[in-house]
Amino acid sequence: MDNRVYYGQYSLKHWLDLILKKNVILPEYQRFFVWDEDKVRMLIKALKNSQFVPPITIGAFSIDGATQNLILDGQQRLTTVLLAYLGLFPDKDLFKGTVDRLANENDDDVDGDDQLDNILQWNFKKLTEKGNNKAAILDQITPGNYKVIDFEIDEDFLKKTFLGFSYLVPQNSDQQVQQKYYSSVFRSINVAGQRLFSQESRASLYFLKDGLRDFFDPPYMKRITIKNYSTESTLDFLRFLALLSQYAKEGNANNVAAGFKSKMEDYYEEYIYSVAGEEPSPKYRPFLEIFLDGNFQPRFEKLDQTIRELNIPAQFTSIIEMDTYLFGLIYAIIFEGKDIDTTRREELIVDIDAKIAEFKSVDAHKKAPSALKYLRARITSSIEIYNNYLHG
């Protein structure tokens, strides 16, 4: 039987009821709330003026006989409605200022930062976890991270203003079939007209198979960042997994990412499907060859522990530095199941820094570090360095 799609519209009040009662929820892979205050005001104005607003897309997902209604497209719009109703806005500058103030206070009893919502990584779950109605939520708000704003809406507006929806119902109850269907749906949606970053867009594919999100995107790796000039981004762990998986399959870096020079995102997606999909790609070493019982957590915990013991930098200023420090480390522990002799840390760091300096002495490498020949050189050199510091 074909998958079905139903169409309709709900009043804003009904949407709020669904959100507050958690009858519609965000899938884990959904991005954070990214709209600024001006965009929120623009949407409220459009609704007040009866202008067209793109409908919300909801998908029914069945697990063990119970159905969850997932928000596939429209998180930013529904969050805006909720914020306008509550008269709040998550303010990043206010949050940062509050955290800095608390950190600088000398009062040992100050622990207010523990009660703050992390506005830098925020979605409406932060609010619905506080209560299922306006009064309950507002009562749990800690001053210092939300701005109070009057969006000039009332109950009459909420009851008489409507927002459309499409409701997707897959006709197959198999969980993995549904996951694959919704991953493809999410990938094809232009979320509120605002382009997804590669890592955000890719994250929908982690939904293909339960239990693998922390494999593709382990939380502890998010503390490592790379900062170039005014841009700072978290480490893309999937990139390391994909490139090293091909290295592990072929035994060298000679053909790593060959043919994908201008389409590396396709390369990473192929790796995700190889691990989480129905058929492994011949390009990569099979997941179950590396983790015989499918349990990757012990090696991941070992990697986290070793990063701490080696005092690997939490922030890099170039991809050359980051790759040289991490490719060999990740390969030895995750793909080979080996341990690093952390008692020789000082020698190891000297070797790594010397190799980084060598790479940076080549102007072409500095100017085009993403070129495949330089990427392969970093993979090979990093693995060779760490091979000299293995236990036993």
Automatic annotation (TrEMBL):
<protein>
    <recommendedName>
        <fullName>GmrSD restriction endonucleases N-terminal domain-containing protein</fullName>
    </recommendedName>
</protein>
<dbReference type="Pfam" id="PF03235">
    <property type="entry name" value="GmrSD_N"/>
</dbReference>
<feature type="domain" description="GmrSD restriction endonucleases N-terminal">
    <location>
        <begin position="21"/>
        <end position="207"/>
    </location>
</feature>
<dbReference type="InterPro" id="IPR004919">
    <property type="entry name" value="GmrSD_N"/>
</dbReference>
